[in-house]
Design a protein that fits this description.
Layout lengths: L4 E7 H12 L5 H11 L5 E7 L4 E5 L5 E2 L6 H26 L1
Antiparallel strand pairs: 1-2, 2-3, 3-4
Length: 100
C-alpha cells in the first residue's frame, strides 16, 4: 500500500494579512501591507507533507532545512495542529465509509 502525502504551504505573512483583512473594516489592504512590513522582518514560509501513516515532514522554504513539529510556534503551530486534526478526521470518515 502506498503512503501518500498531503502537501500544504504555509506563508505566515499571508496568514496575518488575511486575518487582518477579515477582522477589520477600518483598514485598507495597503495599510495592512504597510503594518506587516513594519511589524516583522521575517515570516515563516513552510511546506508541510502529511503522510497517511501519521508522519509529517516540514521544510523551511527559505533555507530548505527540515523543521521538527516541536520547533513550531504561534501561527505556524496553529496551522500544523488544525491541518493534523482535519486530516485525522478525514481519514476516519473515509475508513467509516469504506467499511460501512
Amino acid at each position: 500500500m502506498m503512503n501518500t502525502s498531503h502537501n500544504f504551504r504555509f506563508i505566515e505573512r499571508d496568514y496575518w494579512y488575511h486575518k487582518a483583512l477579515c477582522d477589520t473594516d477600518h483598514l485598507l489592504p495597503g495599510q495592512i501591507d504597510d503594518m506587516l512590513d513594519e511589524a516583522h522582518s521575517h515570516y515563516a514560509d513552510y511546506t508541510f507533507k502529511f503522510y497517511d501513516d501519521g508522519s509529517v515532514i516540514i521544510i523551511d522554504n527559505d533555507t530548505n532545512n527540515r523543521i521538527k513539529p516541536r520547533e513550531l510556534t504561534g501561527a505556524v503551530y496553529d496551522f500544523y495542529i488544525r491541518k493534523r486534526i482535519y486530516l485525522i478526521k478525514t481519514n476516519l470518515m473515509e475508513k467509516q465509509l469504506q467499511y460501512a
